[in-house]
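Hi all, long-time lurker, first post. I run a small reading group and we've been trying to get comfortable going from sequence to structure in the token notation. Rather than ask abstract questions, I figured I'd post a concrete chain and ask someone more experienced to write out its structure so we can walk through it together at our next meeting. Sequence below, copied exactly:
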Amino acid sequence: MVNKGFPKFGMSQAGAFVAALKNYNLPDFILVIIAKECKSDLLERGRIDDRLQSMNDDALMLLHRVFVDCEEDDAGKFAQYRFYAYVSSMYHKCEVIVNETIPGASGTNHKIPVAIKNNGMYIAVAYNKATGNPVNKKEITRFYDMVDDIKKGDHGTMLTDAIYGSSVGFKSDALVELGNLNKSRSNDPENKLDFKTANFENNIYSVTKC
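-- Answer (accepted) --
Happy to help. Here is the structure in token form:
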């Protein structure tokens, strides 16, 4: 792989970025998204450092800003990338699908930022609030109703986990409400659905069970 012309920042800085990034468990689909956004090449297979070295300067810089420096952007895109990677790390060897549309029992098509599939079946869905005010009770209830609708539909039979992530925190009444909704579910194993919240603080996500 040859960089055409002179690289924007010398090989030493590119090498430092690769050295830092290879320690982060970056999922394949994140590399693909970033490569596409930065119009970069990307080795399809191989060791993580080789794949990173195949990417252009813009892609390496963006990955470093998102995962090493944990920067924020106005659109909240960086936070979404971190959330995608975080959810992916919870479900090893499962298929991660970004911006998936899943029909519910009501006939409504629900747009889900991150869906996890195992053996072709949805097992988890996740949503993240990247910007704005802390998650409120109304937003939590809307998320619960959406996931409940998916669970009751044809595609939700194996769905067991629902994660609401936030880079802006949660209002206390929202957490109380989700806890109450969680408890109100029957103990029937076929109806089991575990709702969790994940807060992004100190550059990491941590799950708080409701």
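A couple of things your group might point at:
The beta strands are 95-103, 109-118, 121-129, 161-166, 194-201, 204-209.
Residues 1-6 have pLDDT under 50 and may be disordered.
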